[in-house]
Amino acid sequence: MPRNKKPSREPNCPDKLKVAVELVVKDNFTLRKASERTGIAFQTIARYVDKYRKKDGDIDYEPVFKSTILDDRMEQEMVQYITKCSKMNYGLTLSDARKLAFDLAEANSVKMPPNWVREKMAGRDWISSFMKRHPLSLRKPEGCSLARNTAFNRENVGRFYQNLKEVYEKYAAFSDGTRVYNLDETGITTVATPPKVISAKGQRQVAQVQAAERGQLVTVCSIISAAGTALPPAMIFPRKNFVQRMIAGAPPGTLGLAAQSPWMTGELFVQVLHHFVNFSGSTKDNPTLLILDNHRSHLAPEVLQLAKQHGVVLLTLPPHCTHKLQPLDVGVFGPFMTYYNQAISNFHMNHPGQRVDIYNLAEFVGQAHQKSMTPKNIQSSFQKVGIVPYRDDVFTEDDFLTELQSTNSEMTEEVTAEGSAGEGTSGDADIYPTGATSNVQTPVSSRETEAPAQGRDGVGDGPSSSKTTHHETPTTTNKSTDPRIQDERTKKAHVTPEAVRPFPSTSTDASSKPKRKTKKLKSEVRNQSIHLIPMLPVMLFKQGRTGTIC
After folding, report:
1. Alpha-carbon distances of 144 from 131, 149, 393, rounded to whole Å
2. Statement to judge: residues 77 and 59 lie in one domain
């Protein structure tokens, strides 16, 4: 006989609960049958039956607390606060959320269960029910550096799209995306992240065979086009000499390189750029736009000279913003690494006892490249970041919430963009650098009154004054100091989660910042035809020397 559906989460009627308990105690009903008869969860009936037998029937069927302890308004404010913290990359853990609920209830004089008061936090059952009532879930976050968290701001993003707009206006052939490319590197190893496997319940240790404890690193340089195509990649192996069998199984046309270190260098990137020119057909009469990060290897003097000769326009991304602005990072590298790990796992399953070395990686790269570099993935990645078609409004206010953490935070970068001004270059190479801004303004929310920012301990010595929104009706200021009037206002005041626990902010105290030694370099700039963005550091090369112009 099929069981009834799960009973509703509405508060149980005391009379109905009493009937259910008496059915079990007096009429010898089972918990399941009593639940089917009354519609009350059998766990609830069992709990009250136990109380009934311990106290000889002297129990109160009226619930001490309703279904929720915080009212709807407080819960909605708490949901908004938690969501905002998550978008700021400072998400709350379950313990933090439970403590916040307790602090919020205490600040608003809400009646709480004894376990809340005893533990100074909400109960586990309450937080579980709270997350079910609202669109919240428990997620494992990705690591995000402080530089990346604060570099993505309106100023940096606006400068990138302004540069992109200028490129499109100068080169009308780029607007359809057929001549727009994105290049970036990613590292792969012979030891991949093991997938989830099925095991017996209670098994203490679950392992998966790998090639070794530590793997060997190989760099894969991928190139994709906004038209939905992917050029053959380049692979850098940690070997002194390259042999052809290292790229056996790789996508046709893959460029194989060898170096003492598998990291990209200026010399290696010259060969990669030659590889790009050959497959893209870039010339001065048929130029291409190559979007890439501003790593120093990408903007070496030889690279810039080669790009000028073959009509390659270089557009650099702002530092620490590639996770949001680069098509490869947004929609391609994720599936690529998933399929790559699957390929290694399948190899171990089909070849037990055989180790994976760098001579096997090209085959795995070929499998992952074919499955991940699809036209749909590539085109959607360019669309999502607003490169093709051009859109400078793809990011909303929520995407820039990290700006709330910093007031005048200084973002110093060693290299932001580089151009060519050497004797071997006429100086008319098109390089559109995008650097990091030095000042990040903090948006301030509206508030009727200003107060010093407070930490979790309530100490009002924050670095700057913060503003919080009060939901009570605005009232005129009364100069009276009657304590009775002040007490009445205190009782009626509504405390928000932001007032209990202010949003995280970065201190701007100069004494707390580590001192960095900077060396000012001077150089003579004779050629001014390079496209320079005002107030951006631009690296210029002249006769083997480097200089900085601001």
Report:
1. 25, 6, 24
2. no
